[in-house]
Amino acid sequence: MNIDERLEKLAERHEALAQTVEIIAGMQRSNEEHLAQLTQAVQELKTTVQQDGEHIRALVRIAEIHVHRLTHLEGDTP
Questions:
Q1: CA–CA dist 8, 13 (Å, integer)
Q2: What is the pLDDT of residue 5?
Q3: Residue 35: its pLDDT value, please?
Q4: Contacts for 33-38 with beta carbons within 8 Å, 24 or more apart?
Q5: CB 61 within 8 A of CB 67
Q6: Alpha-carbon span 43 to 10, nearest angstrom
Q7: Residues in CB range of 72: below 8 A, 6 or more apart
Q8: Rounded to an integer, what distance in angstroms lies between the CA atom of residue 68 and that of residue 38?
Q9: Are 68 and 78 in contact (CB under 8 A)?
Q10: Which one, of 56, 36, 55, 54, lies nearest residue 44 by Cα?
Q11: Is the dihedral of CA 36, 37, 42, 47 positive or negative?
Q12: 26: Cα within 13 Å, side-chain hemisphere
């Protein structure tokens, strides 16, 4: 193998590596976009769960008030 053949082979390998790097970079960008979407979805879910917790606590408090009121109306002492 002479020098020209070696240079040609190196150029081919260089091109193949450059293409591989482009593919990997594209995959990385796609993964970053997907991760950003997942992060946003998790944040929205966290907010929803917190709101649900607040609503449940409010309903529990209302139920406690009603039980207390009914207990007093029936003449029982708490």
A1: 9
A2: 92
A3: 98
A4: none
A5: no
A6: 49
A7: 78
A8: 45
A9: yes
A10: 36
A11: positive
A12: 6
Q: In the numeric block, which tokens belong to residue 7?
A: 């240079």
In order of 10, 15, 44, 56, the CA distances from 70 in angstroms are 88, 82, 39, 21
Tokens encoding 37: 């979407």
- Report which residue type is found at 53: G
pLDDT in tens, the chain (78 residues): 899 899 999 999 999 999 999 999 999 999 999 999 999 999 999 999 999 999 999 999 999 999 999 888 877 655
Which pTM was predicted? 0.62
Residue type, 60: V
User: CA-CA distance, 38 to 32, in Å (whole number)?
Assistant: 10
